[in-house]
Design brief:
Blueprint: E1 3-8, H1 12-22, E2 27-32, H2 44-58, E3 65-74, H3 85-91, H4 93-100, E4 108-119, E5 123-135, E6 151-153, H5 165-170, H6 173-186
Parallel strand pairs: 1-2, 1-3
Antiparallel strand pairs: 3-4, 4-5, 5-6
Helix pairs in contact: 1-6
Bound molecules: inosine 5'-triphosphate.
């Protein structure tokens, strides 16, 4: 695929990461601010799929676009905050998560991204990216956004917030999903 692709988001951090990965390809990424209706569901896949269906069906969006829905799934909290990650970040935030996990030895967690692509006439495709890691004991670093200061991806000693954008983009949940999207688009 060549040309313009729209990312539906109000999160500038996501835009920067995805744009950086698409650099050098024939795809121009722009944001489109549309109200994305998020249904109450157990999985990111359902949230993305039904949100895209609503945009196409109700709002009649007829351009190629993507929607990235991500979440942090903490094993010792049975996957919380998971699909509620945006709400939890806005309410109790990283301090609240660290407080909830006080005294817990199992710090393992998975960051997940589901990226939905809609191309008019072709329907919806979903691309998944996941990365395992650990929740820190305290916040570390100032780069990035959201849960970055409390998540150390496996194989690293640093949190995502202690990495520059280029370093985080070498491997992350979002970049794994974006690479699958790029493969798919290059076969178009
Ligand atoms: P949209 O407008 O794109 O929906 P959002 O920030 O609400 O932006 P999500 O629902 O996908 O996005 O994200 C859920 C929460 O997880 C939210 O608080 C994000 O800041 C956070 N998050 C998503 N990706 C992240 C990443 O790569 N690193 C740290 N936090 C992340």
């Amino acid at each position: 695929m060549k040309g313009r692709l729209y990312l539906i988001t109000g999160n500038p951090g996501k835009l920067k990461e995805i744009k950086n990965r698409l650099d050098g390809l024939d795809i121009e990424l722009s944001t489109m601010e549309e109200d994305f209706v998020e249904i109450q569901a157990d999985t990111l896949e359902e949230v993305v799929f039904f949100g895209i269906e609503h945009l196409v069906g109700e709002k009649r969006i007829d351009r190629p676009f993507i929607k990235d829905d991500s979440g942090l799934f903490i094993d010792a909290l049975d996957g919380f905050p998971g699909v509620y990650s945006a709400y939890v970040q806005q309410t109790i935030g990283n301090d609240g998560i660290l407080q909830l996990m006080k005294g817990m030895d199992d710090r393992t967690a998975t960051f997940k991204t589901v990226m939905g692509l809609h191309i008019p006439g072709e329907g919806i495709s979903l691309f998944r990216g996941e990365i395992k890691g650990d929740i820190t004991l305290e916040k570390r670093g100032f780069f990035g956004f959201g849960y970055d200061p409390i998540f150390i991806p496996e194989g690293s000693e640093r949190t995502f917030a202690e990495m520059t954008l280029e370093e985080k983009n070498r491997d992350s949940h979002r970049i794994r999903a974006t690479m699958k999207l790029v493969d798919h688009l290059s076969m178009e």
